[in-house]
Amino acid sequence: MQLPDMPLHDPFVVADDRTRTYHLYTSNVPSVSGVDGTGTMVYRSRDLRDWAPPVVVFRTAGQEGIWATDGAWAPEVHAWGGRYYLFTTLHNADRPLPALPPPNQWAVPFRTPTHMRGTVTAVSDSLLGPFTVLDPSRPVPPEHLMTLDGTLYVDPSGQPWMVYAHEWLQTIDGTMEAVRLTPDLSRTTGDPVFLFKASDAPWTAEQIPAGVPHQLPPYITDGPQLYRTPDGSLLMLWSTYEKNVAGQDGTVSGGYVQTYAVSGSGNLEGPWEQRRPLVRDDSGHGMLFHTFDGRLMMILHRPFENARGKLYEMRLDGHELEIVRRREDLDGGG
Q1: Statement: residue 323 has pLDDT above 60
Q2: CA 102, 172, 208, 249 torsion: positive or negative?
Q3: What confidence tens digit (pLDDT) does each residue in 128-168 have?
Q4: Count of Cβ atoms closer than 10 Å to residue 325 Cβ
Q5: Distance of CA 57 to the CA centre of its chain
Q6: What are the residue ranges spanned by the domains of the chain?
Q7: Minimal CA–CA distance to 80: which of 121, 133, 116?
Q8: Where are the alpha helices (DSSP H) in the chain?
Q9: In this structure, what is the dihedral angle of CA atoms 29, 94, 74, 323, given to the nearest 10 degrees?
Q10: What is the pLDDT of residue 104?
């Protein structure tokens, strides 16, 4: 298989040095994997061009007492303490959440019912699973918050954190937040820490004309991934929707974009400075990884519907991230 043939959303690559194999995780697609149900599957490749058919490594079915069986979005796999940990987002539409107070007058007409959503952690001794949920009773972030796309970050002291997106459906202006994890990654300790909000990126509303309120939703936060640069800064890749206005009725539309932010202090708490988008064209939820020959790569999905993986060779100039070239030779173009 090659990337144009591989349905995938929210791609995450683990380059396994031991086997010299790239593992590409995504939500289970039963028509491709041959396995029914909500879960995670993985493609494998030695060269990023040719991929083996996917293997299912996690299913919500069979996880005794699991609080949700829908979703399994944005799977990531991280090595920690000699084992492998899967982070993936589940949701349960039958467990409504209370609405949080709207932050401004423009939020009121757009208030949307919310339900339980958040990232779980599951563990395995193998990159190929099977992964078992550590706490099937609830998501890891506070369960009264509607969150998604949790990722692992380990600070310089060795403290593990989960960084996640707090849904705009609950907050109107989506936020990035972080919470400390216990050593086994199963629970949180302490309160969530606010990092930044989606509207902090000044370009999100550049195309909205004068007279139209910039507070109009959505201000979406999506797909965080942390990366430490050689100069000690901390980068966060994240995605959102770039807004514009179609017509004279003030209707807001926009496109999915891949962007990033920089914490020049190197601290997770920031302050975070927003950069302009790296890739537009309905592209996003990217992550950085290194090839076995040392090249820095970014993978993301495009378009949002019927998504496929796209690969970019990247370069760091200090803590500024730049695209060197699109690797159409690997991802098939398009």
Answers
A1: yes
A2: negative
A3: 999 999 999 999 999 999 999 999 999 999 999 999 999 98
A4: 11
A5: 19
A6: 3-331
A7: 121
A8: 30-33, 168-171, 328-331
A9: 110
A10: 45
Q: Helix (H) and strand (E) counts for the chain?
A: 3, 20
Between CA 8 and CA 40 the distance in angstroms is 11
Q: Which residues pair with 254 in a beta bridge?
A: 243
Could you tell me the two tokens for 197?
A: 């909000």
| Beta-ladder partners of 274 | 261
Q: Three-class SS of residue 177?
A: strand
H helical segments located in 191-334: 328-331
Structure tokens at 133: 């949920």
User: Coil, strand, or helix at residue 53?
Assistant: strand
Which residues are paired to 88 by β-bridges? 120
Nearest by Cα to 296 from 222, 229, 223:
229
- Sole residue written with tokens 């349905």: 7
Q: How many residues does the chain have?
A: 334
CA–CA separation, 115 and 169 (whole Å): 10
Predicted confidence (pLDDT) per residue in 252-271, tens digit: 556 899 999 999 999 999 99
Strands (E), 182-307: 188-197, 222-228, 234-246, 251-263, 272-274, 284-290, 296-302
Which structure tokens are listed for 191?
């309160």
Whole-number Å distance between alpha carbons of 146 and 109: 19
104 half-sphere exposure, CB direction, 13 A CA radius: 8
CB 160 within 8 A of CB 147: no
Asked if residues 328 and 317 have their Cβ atoms less than 8 Å apart, the reply is no
What topology is assigned to 3-331 in CATH?
A: Tachylectin-2; Chain A (2.115.10)
Phi-psi region of 141 (alpha: psi -120 to 50; beta: other; left: phi over 0): beta
Question: Checking DSSP bridges between strand 234-246 and strand 251-263, what pairing results, if any?
Answer: antiparallel
Name the residue type at position 265. S
Q: Which residue has the tokens 């309160």?
A: 191
Q: How far apart are CA 177 and CA 195, in angstroms?
A: 5
